[in-house]
Amino acid sequence: MIKQGETLPEATLFEFVEDAREGCTLGPNSFDVRKEAAGKRVVIFGLPGAFTPTCSAKHVPGYVEHFDALRAAGVDEIWCVSVNDAFVMGAWGRDQRTSGKVRMMADGSAALTRALGLEQDLSARGMGIRSQRYAMVVDDGVVKTLHVEAPGKFEVSDAASILATLTRA
Q: Which residue spans traverse the membrane (predicted)?
C-alpha cells in the first residue's frame, strides 16, 4: 500500500468531459495521474463503486458540500476515483451534481487502484475487483496524508475528516 511521503504511481485515469475545451474533447479523455497532480494540492478519494449506497448518499455528496471549505484550505482539485468506466462516472457525476467541484475519474481496469495497493476483491458480491474506501491529500504528486477505511466503515475518508486534517496542518 502506498505510504505517506511516496510519489503517486504512473497510471492513467479517464474522465468523461461534458464540454469541449482546449486539450479535451467531448466524451472520455485520458489523463496521466502524475502530470495532472503536478504542481497542485489534490484530494483524491477512492470508493467501491458508482451509484452504490454509501458512496452516493454520503461520500461524494460530502465532498461537493465541503468544496468551498476545501478550496479555502488550499486544495486545488478533488478527484473521486472508482473502478468504473468513464461513461458510468460521467453519469454518476451528473446525478451527484459534481460539475466544477469534484472530478469523477474512472479507473476502469483498476490500474491506479492496484498500483496504490488499495484494491479489494468483491467478487463474492458480484462486483469484481474494486477500490477500498480511502482519501489522501497529495501535494505535487507526493502523498501527504492517507486515510483508509476499515472494511464496512465510513469514518476517516469523508470530506469533513480531510478538511480537519488540512486545517490542523
A: none
